[in-house]
């Protein structure tokens, strides 16, 4: 059955290519959506960029015909910019205010009524990222859907980077003797490179082994975790051991770390970065950056020079550095960093246009990055550099992102098949018992 999809503004502002995501069906953009997109095109951020991209795509389609009459899309569907069906008569009995959301609802409702009156066999569906608009649509008897095509992973199936598995006593003995096993000897659904295994003996449940696939995903190598502390930090659980292995491997230039608050993502990354930059001299500089996205109400403009303005945003990084350098006095960390020109802490705002070779790069709070922003960052990485993206996909402050569409999840899922990347989801909180309790239950 043919369908008519009516798009809300937020769908196009999140993914301009959503225009082409509805197969051979009809796609309708209400005129009010164009007005809202026009109001965003001057923004100097991801929303503004997407608004301008939508405008460019529509202008290209305009070359094929009049948009208000309908033009053919490359995937076989049709696109119409709807100028009619705007009457509010049917809406007044339910929603009085003529807000932009209600104007979009009015278009969808009037088209749905027209379809029924003309006895056409076309289902009308409102597509919106706004849950409350979908609730309103349901109240009016309209079918509504979230836009899910931009999700890179299905619900609750995000890649962990490791798995628990069972081996027969014979294969366990072979693993310890040969230090490796062909991937064909293990029953697993994953054949990703740099993937970890926690093996347990079928005959003796207390006997276990930690292993890791090679960069080609052909062999599983026995993994002997590092015993010596890295810059004074020793892993407290098996996931942290795996993470530290990825963080200290030169042949894995991209590492993604996901986990709840207090699991040690930032501390482990900084310790590994300082160890390889200051002790081993593998990298010329340690660069730490994070997006400037406030949690809750923004505090507005901040006084002072760039460093003074950035300090509140970067404070979580400084807290971890104070722990690693074991500073006790006020200002002591600033004096240490001033004497170590190899450590640089800054906002992601200043990374565009740069080329960053021979550096250990840490990007904190990467879950607040869009797909476009994370691509921009990764394309800045120069020869000889290593980059770590980390964050908690469940703690997102960006209004147009969620657990399944953010930049951190996007990179993890898209590059998990590549030998140049490794991923670990840290499960256990090590900050404090209270922090773990809050992360689990609140």
Automatic annotation (TrEMBL):
Keyword Nucleotide-binding listed: yes
SMART domains found in the cross-reference section: PINc (SM00670)
GO molecular function, one term: ATP binding
GO cellular component, one term: cytosol
Domain PIN residues, every copy: 3-135
CDD domains: PIN_VapC_PhoHL-ATPase
Keywords, alphabetical: ATP-binding, Nucleotide-binding
Pfam families: PhoH, PIN_4
Protein name (Swiss-Prot/TrEMBL): PhoH-like ATPase
